């Protein structure tokens, strides 16, 4: 059967040439779209290195009429940080809140990014630029950051203090590997490149970290707040983790309504509270990921519809022009089902032949590094998977496009068709 179909395709090569060219072109274009989506899905499925489920970000602001710029550290500590700590403490007492944490520096799903240079003591030739995040001890629990190696099973406030002018630090696997070539670096020391007197000691190595769902993994370091923070009138990012049974769609409204009425600690007030899912949507939109996915899906739909119409028209014409052939087949004992299968097999074989030059073109595009590699590397595995997915999509479209005329061919009466011939 296959040999007979291949012979027919060759004999009708002039008729098939335009359809063949269309299949090749659309296969290449569709593959490119599939490749873009693969990169996005691959990045999305990778763990971010933390769990933001049931986590909310609370925006606290200061009242302008009560704001007084303070010069000395004692005043800032007494009139700013002490009242702010009372505000944060009140959040912990809200029913359903599991934990509360604060941070400065690089935030998840945010354009607030802070970098710093680090090097192993004595080796200033190998300086690594890393994201830095100043956090309290509760941060790791709130975001449930898994550790590859750690000195402390459960990090406590007393573990998060400098000892002999050496600051404890949690580094990501990327930072550890870049500085020492391994992730088993517990107890290792390193220094701040721009502040040579600032030394760190690794107390834990976290799993790989990234700032958002579609970013690549980057070096990260988490350390306690430096002294200079407490000399500034700044408000850190505040996060709360809500117990799963207490989290629902109305939690934000109830929280801000209750806490706004309860908190009367000058000069602070609650401005807003939003889930991390909300910030993820904003981040996707700001990075253009949402638009990229929508545009790619729109192009894929256009290419698929184009192939569908081309196959539908071509095989509809073939059905009408080959009525005599179909009648003879059925007169010789072929069933209607066998006739339809013949048409479907012919279309799939034609697609399989067209996919060979299309795959060669895709291979050259891949070798030339013309694919989108913002979210994931252009590996050979990625090429093979995307080619298989593209062929399967094209095969489904081909079968749908041929089914309508082939179904029509199944109802041809042999006697009537032969009489017309």
TrEMBL record:
<feature type="transmembrane region" description="Helical">
    <location>
        <begin position="20"/>
        <end position="43"/>
    </location>
</feature>
<feature type="transmembrane region" description="Helical">
    <location>
        <begin position="339"/>
        <end position="360"/>
    </location>
</feature>
<dbReference type="Pfam" id="PF02687">
    <property type="entry name" value="FtsX"/>
</dbReference>
<comment type="similarity">
    <text>Belongs to the ABC-4 integral membrane protein family.</text>
</comment>
<keyword id="KW-1003">Cell membrane</keyword>
<protein>
    <submittedName>
        <fullName>ABC-type antimicrobial peptide transport system, permease component</fullName>
    </submittedName>
</protein>
<keyword id="KW-1133">Transmembrane helix</keyword>
<dbReference type="InterPro" id="IPR003838">
    <property type="entry name" value="ABC3_permease_C"/>
</dbReference>
<feature type="transmembrane region" description="Helical">
    <location>
        <begin position="380"/>
        <end position="404"/>
    </location>
</feature>
<feature type="transmembrane region" description="Helical">
    <location>
        <begin position="297"/>
        <end position="318"/>
    </location>
</feature>
<keyword id="KW-0812">Transmembrane</keyword>
<keyword id="KW-0472">Membrane</keyword>
<dbReference type="InterPro" id="IPR050250">
    <property type="entry name" value="Macrolide_Exporter_MacB"/>
</dbReference>
<feature type="domain" description="ABC3 transporter permease C-terminal">
    <location>
        <begin position="298"/>
        <end position="412"/>
    </location>
</feature>
């Amino acid at each position: 059967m296959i040999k007979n179909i291949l012979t027919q395709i060759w004999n009708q090569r002039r008729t098939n040439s335009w359809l063949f060219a269309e299949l090749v072109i659309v296969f290449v274009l569709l593959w490119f779209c599939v490749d873009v989506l693969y990169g996005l899905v691959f990045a999305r499925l990778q763990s971010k290195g933390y769990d933001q489920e049931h986590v909310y970000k609370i925006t606290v602001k200061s009242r302008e009429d009560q704001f007084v710029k303070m010069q000395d550290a004692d005043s800032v500590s007494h009139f700013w940080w002490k009242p702010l700590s009372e505000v944060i403490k009140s959040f912990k007492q809200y029913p359903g809140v599991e934990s509360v944490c604060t941070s400065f520096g690089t935030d998840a799903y945010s354009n607030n990014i802070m970098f710093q240079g680090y090097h192993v003591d004595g080796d200033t030739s190998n300086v690594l630029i890393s994201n830095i995040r100043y956090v309290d001890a509760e941060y790791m629990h709130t975001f449930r950051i898994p550790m590859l190696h750690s000195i402390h099973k459960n990090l406590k406030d007393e573990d998060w203090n400098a000892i002999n002018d050496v600051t404890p630090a949690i580094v990501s696997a990327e930072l550890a590997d870049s500085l020492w070539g391994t992730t088993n670096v517990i107890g290792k020391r390193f220094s701040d490149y721009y502040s040579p007197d600032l030394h760190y000691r690794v107390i834990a190595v976290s799993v790989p970290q990234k700032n958002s769902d579609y970013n690549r993994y980057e070096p990260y370091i988490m350390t306690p707040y430096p002294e200079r923070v407490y000399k500034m009138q700044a408000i850190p990012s505040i996060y709360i983790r809500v117990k799963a049974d207490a989290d629902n769609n109305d939690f934000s409204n109830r929280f801000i309504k209750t806490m706004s009425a309860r908190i009367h600690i000058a000069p602070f007030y609650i401005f807003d509270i939003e889930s991390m899912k909300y910030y993820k949507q904003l981040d996707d939109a700001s990075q253009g990921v949402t638009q990229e996915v929508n545009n790619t899906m729109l192009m894929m739909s256009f290419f698929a519809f184009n192939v569908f119409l081309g196959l539908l028209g071509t095989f509809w014409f073939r059905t009408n022009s080959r009525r005599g052939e179909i009648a003879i087949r059925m007169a010789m004992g072929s069933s209607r089902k066998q006739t339809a299968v013949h048409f479907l097999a012919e279309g799939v074989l034609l697609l399989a032949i067209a996919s060979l030059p299309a795959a060669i073109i895709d291979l050259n595009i891949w070798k030339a590094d013309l694919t989108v590699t913002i979210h994931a590397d252009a590996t050979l595995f990625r090429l093979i998977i995307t080619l298989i997915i593209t062929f399967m999509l094209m095969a489904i479209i081909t079968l749908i496009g041929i089914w309508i005329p082939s179904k029509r061919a199944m109802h041809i009466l042999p006697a009537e068709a032969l009489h017309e011939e």
